[in-house]
Write a structure and sequence with these properties.
Layout (H helix, E strand, L loop, with lengths): L3 H19 L5 H13 L3 H14 L4 H13 L3 H14 L4 H13 L3 H14 L3 H5 L4 H12 L4 H10 L1
Helix pairs in contact: 2-3, 2-4, 3-4, 4-5, 4-6, 5-6, 6-7, 7-10, 9-10
């Protein structure tokens, strides 16, 4: 007996199986790892491209937004980086790395009061986080140099005290 509908159904199943086995899956982990490698090599534009691909695969991972923001900070595209960090903080409100990167952006943009408030929030969440992260960071040394030029800046001195 001949069943034309069954033949069409079998053909459709075979096409679906071949598509599933030969299609390249979108794995955010590999794109994120490639982005981190480029970030370490200071190739920030390639890092940015890989982090964006990782976000296309899985837009619900806050650490990918944070990594993308770090690449953008190094490219001095602070407004874009700020937007990505805010998205990361929507997904995970107490994400300390994203909060401290956001504070750094505010510092780089000259918004010292905002930077101070965010650093204060980070300090409230984990008082040792800043001390662990910033002794070798260039932000603290830049802040100290700027405070010598601007000794009257009260907010800047408060930020330095939090970072030490």
């Amino acid at each position: 007996m001949y069943y034309p509908k069954a033949k069409g159904l079998i053909f459709l199943i075979l096409i679906l199986i071949s598509f599933i086995t030969f299609a390249k899956p979108c794995i955010e982990k590999s794109y994120n790892q490639k982005g981190l490698k480029y970030l370490n090599k200071k190739n920030y534009s390639l890092a940015e491209a890989n982090f964006k691909k990782a976000l296309q695969c899985n837009p619900k991972k806050p650490f990918i937004y944070n990594n993308l923001a770090v690449a953008l900070i190094n490219l001095k595209r602070y407004n874009e980086a700020e937007n990505y960090l805010k998205k990361a903080l929507k997904l995970k409100p107490h994400y300390l790395k994203a909060l401290s990167n956001l504070a750094s952006i505010y510092y780089y943009k000259g918004q010292y009061k905002k930077a101070y408030e965010v650093y204060k929030k980070v300090n409230r969440l984990d008082s040792y986080f800043i001390k662990r992260r910033f002794p070798q960071n260039k932000v603290l040394s830049k802040m100290k140099a700027r405070s010598k030029k601007r000794p009257h800046d009260y907010i800047l001195k408060k930020i330095i005290n939090y970072l030490q």
